[in-house]
Amino acid sequence: MATIALGADHAGYSLKEKLKTWLAADGHRVIDHGTHSTDSVDYPDYAAAVAETVRAGEAERGVLVCGSGIGMAMAANKVPGVRAAVAADPTVARLSRQHNDANVLALGARLTAPGHALEVVQVWLATPFEGGRHARRVDKLAQLDAIRKEQALDAAAR
What we know:
alpha/beta, five-stranded parallel sheet
């Protein structure tokens, strides 16, 4: 089984807790980056924590939950090496893995019923990256990350 990093904002807290229980029961090691209540928080903080855990190799994959999944994905995709995808159904989840090698999944708690979210996560975790022609495209995403990192280093040196 895999190590999965989890994170949510206040809107995603309840669904994150359900996913955490399911993932642990299924034998996954879970790293819970919070939030730990329904008190209002800022989603980028939790997205960054999960994304950094995945980037560092401390977790094979990450799952984020906010109201729509969109904000979490946007924030996580700022971390080099992270390929976060919003998936509200199993088909999108499967394609995000097969074609894009998504290593972070973002879910919308206000848009996805818990049972359906569990199905999305199950499909996403079970689906391997196809490689082949898709590997070339994922490599280009890594090149964009490298360019962004180089630009940041240049800006910091000034």
